[in-house]
Structure formats: C-alpha cells, structure tokens
Amino acid sequence: MSNARDFSLDAELAETATWEDDSTETADALEDDGFESGYADDEPHDLVDASGDDPEEADPTVGAMELAERYQLRRVAGLRTELEDITEVEYRQLRLERVVLVGVWTSGSVTDAENSMAELALLAETAGSEVLEAIYQRRTSPDPATYIGRGKVEALKEIVGVTGADTVICDGELAPSQLRNLEDRLKVKVVDRTALILDIFAQHAKSREGQAQVELAQLQYMKQRLRGWGGNLSRQAGGRVAGGAGIGGRGPGETKIETDRRRINTKIAKLHRDLKQMKVTRDAKRAERRRREVPSVAIAGYTNAGKSSLLNRLTSAGVLVEDALFATLDPTVRKTTTADGRVYTMSDTVGFVRHLPHQLVEAFRSTLEEVADADLILHVVDGSHPDPEGQLTAVREVLAEIEAGDVKELVVINKADAADPLVLARLTAREPHCVVVSARTGQGIEDALRVIESELPRPAVTFRVLLPYERGDLLNKLHQGGEIDSLEHTAEGTVVAGRASEQLAGELAPYALDVAPA
Question: What confidence score (pLDDT) does residue 36 get?
Fold first, then answer.
C-alpha cells in the first residue's frame, strides 16, 4: 500500500498562484532595507557607448582595430621580483628606457635648435622611452671624436649619473668611432637619431614589404657599426684550431666580426632579391593604372601632419590615425571619383622628417615611386606646428631626392582648427597655390576637393559620337574616364560630345559623327 498523497493538478496550480505576490513583497522589503543588487540593471550602461551602440556589434575600421591592438594590454612573463610583480602592462610602456637627449647646434637660430630638440623628444617618446633631460651645445661642427667634445662628455656623464638614465640619444648621425667613444666613457647605451627613427619604423611596419624595407635599412646601418667585444669576437678559427672543421675551415680563418659582417651582407642580398620581386607586383599594378589612364594623387608631407586623417576624410579609407610620429608606414591606395564621375586614385605615403636617414630613402624608394609617378602631390603641412616653413623645406628636399620635384604640387595646410590665424595668413601668403583645411572638423574639405578635381589631367581628344543604346558599356566608360560636355537621347541612339583619352577615343571612332580638332 502506497503512502503517496493524491495528486491533483488543480490543487497544485492553486498553490502557485500566490508565488508572484510573495516575490513582489520580498523585493519591496529588500528595497525598504536598503538592499542593492550586485547584478547589472536592465540597461548595461557600462557596455554601451555614448552613441547608444554596442561596441561588440559595431563594425570598426581596419585602422581602429590596428590602433586598439597597438595599445591593448599584453601579459608579460618572467618579470616577477621580490619587490614587485608586473603581470599586465601597456604595450611599449614596459620598463621604459630613461633617456637623456644631446644635441649640437651648428647653424640657424636658437628657435631652430629648440625645435629640433623638441622633435627628438617626440621621437624618443614614440619609440617608448621616458625623456629625463635635454641639453644642446653651440659648436661650429660636431667633435670628430666624441660629438660634443671631451669636457662636455664629463658633464654629460654627471647628468646621466644624477638622473639615473640608461640611454643617451644624440640629435645627429654618429660615426662608429663617436658611438664607441661615447659608450666607453658614459658607460650607458648611446643611440643616434638614425637608429631611433629606424627603431620606430621597425615597431610600426605591418606589411611584408614594409618590414623587409625596414630590416634592409637597419642592416645597412648596422654593418658599418659592428664592434668586437673582448677576445670572443676577434678569435681566429682556422687550421687545426677549427677543431677539425674540414674543408672550408682551414687556413687563416676569419674573425667573428668578419663572420657577422658576411652574414649581414648575405641577408642584405636576400632582402634586395625579395624587394625586387615585390617591386614587380607594385609595378604591375601601377602599369595597369597607366594603361587605363587613371589619374593618381599622392599625399605626402611631414610626419604627424595629418596625412592619414586627410585620406580618411577624402575617401573614407579607414586607415589607422594616431597622434604620433610615423604612426602609419605602409602605403594605402584608394579609388575615388570626382563630382562629375571621373575615377582617380589617392595614395597615402610614409611621412618625412628633418634629416631623414638615407638608408630609409633608399629602402623605401619603390614605395616613394608612387609619389614620383603621381599626377598631383598633396603636400600636407601642419599649420599648428611651431615651424611649418621648416616642414615644407624638409619635405621638398626629400621629394627632390626621389626625383618628384617636377610633379604638380598643391599645399594643404591642415589642422586649421588648432592653428594660429596669423600663421595661416603667413603660410597662405608664402604659398599662393594652397588650401586651408581641418581633417578633424571637415573645414575646407569641399574647397580642397574642387581644387584637386581642377588640377587632375584632362582627356586630350575631343569627340562627338552617336552611340547605339546597346553600347551602354561605352557610355559608362565615358562617365568614368572622360568628360561629357553634352548628352542627348535620340531615336537612333545617344549623341554624346566631350573629351576622352586616346584609347577610349579609338573605341568611339566607329560611332563618330564629326571629329573636332584637339
């Protein structure tokens, strides 16, 4: 006989009818007692940005994702000590190098020297270091042995000891002997301006071609600055001393530093071959644009002048934008159209700087050819910079070095929202062919587009044709690559008059009504 009670569905449902009322009374009682729930509210405010969009559901641009990756937290292992435990740090801010900046002022005014030192400080911070002190000296020329002179080296050694710096950065390119002498006397690492810029390029290069170009420049710089370290790098390894190395190991042998130099030469030769193959691909793309006679516009200018921001504003490219020197290195080409439908390309290039290392110019020559082959150069200058005229001069020196000095140039004075109106007036008076814009706010962008479209090369061949309606493909080509002066739809077809390239004019020849002189 079972002891289970009789089950009735109606009775069970009747018992649960009061549950909702009980939970409501309990919640009211908890609120009266001042209880606060630890769970999120109905609207998770922390997960929704100011615009009301969920960041997880947003579609970020490539540049935004690269910027987030550059500054995301990384886990670093092996840094535990007895006094501290560093487990998560911000990228490029782990154990910041403490540096002292040293400059030699040989020409120009005091303002020029201070601007150069301020730029060196920005370069050092971009590379991931903490600037403790900056000093410069007035000399007719750098000292051939120690760059700043024997007496100043002793003063610099005291500054390094007091500040606790572990690196000295010199505002110039040091000879191997100068570098060795300074390190021997200061007992800390010494870096020159060229090595500093190469380090920044190595951090920011993303594409395979960009990384190969930077590595090539670093090896060319390093090859002349190899130095031995004690007996290990000067030990002979020939004959019986080679330990029975056999063929190739006998004879006088070579020192360790010679072996390193040979390996560097081998690596340089391999990088030259790789870049040559990459150049074939780049040339093929450029030749296709030439064949189609697509006009090209190249954005060039000083580093951190706002070139990438301007490209994003003009073409919605979505490339990385950061307030830092040499934030973007890899060239970006985007296709865009004029107001009347003509197609042209706009490319962003690597930024320039005063005393840009020659190794970088040579390594990036294939990339900089985009500027030399362009139909128009947008020369971007930072209107809020203390010395915008110096930026213009430095960029034009590099453009002349890559044989782009004869290309048509339009000066774009950027950052008008942060610039001094007197400086803008001075620049516009000095550069008559210029436009003033702000890539951040959009000020002057429409004027810049109108000037760009007016400066693009125009088709040379005039035409007047009667296109059958089944040849809509030719009419589409005219809209994209030609200029249409008049268009009329008739019973026989479409009568179109305007200008086109020689290749397109040849396709239109069978439908010509009459050909006007060019």
Answer: 52
